[in-house]
Amino acid sequence: MAFREQPAFEIGRRIEIRGGNTWIVILGPDTTNNSIAGFVADLSAALSRTVRVVTGAGPMDGLLTVLESPADDLVLIADLDEVDAAAWSALDINRSGLAREGAVILWLSSYGFANLSRFAPNLRSFVGGSIFPLSPDGSALTPEERASRIAELEDHFQMTSEQAIAQAVAGTQPPDPLFVEWLVLLDRGDLV
Description:
By secondary structure, the protein is an alpha/beta fold. The chain has 2 domains: 7-141, P-loop containing nucleotide triphosphate hydrolases (Rossmann fold, 3-Layer(aba) Sandwich), CATH 3.40.50.300; 142-186, no CATH class. It is built from 10 helices and 5 strands, in the order αβαβαβααβααβααα. The chain has helices at residues 7-18, 33-47, 60-68, 85-93, 95-98, 110-119, 121-127, 143-157, 161-170, 177-185; strands spanning 23-27, 51-54, 74-77, 104-108, 131-133. A 5-stranded parallel β-sheet has the order 2-3-4-1-5, with helices on both faces. Strand 2 (51-54), helix 3 (60-68) and strand 3 (74-77) form a beta-alpha-beta unit. The longest helix has 15 residues, at 33-47. The chain starts with 6 loop residues before the first helix and ends in a 7-residue tail after the last helix. Mean pLDDT is 80; it is low at 1-6.
């Protein structure tokens, strides 16, 4: 599902439809406070409730504790790009402890999403196809921006999008965060 004019509104709608225990990845342009703050403000307004921003860096038991209290609010975890393989694995092992009533939004770069997919496959399954790329200004990519970025990635990898999908289906894709971004832009995040 491609979001156009109001990504926070559309993401908020998805959260409301799914109810509790919803996991979403936002492929943010960066982890600056301005991008995150703008998105959080828009989402809070769309849902008429506060979005709590928490830190994911540090000891994983700390993150589990933060997510438990309260367990029914909407939480955005903003800094998981810095998490290493061991921490992702620890999160993956404790995935049942991460199940909660409230929704969880992971703000990741394509690099962070690649690490989530590689080192925490069970946690990745919580996300499913709920992956939303945002443009540098924090808004949803327009169809033109999406097409332009896909063309850049085709040029970078010297293959067509169809060939990229075929590689992903065969499991022979390169372990490159840009390749992950490409699949997400093609609405094939399920192949990551």
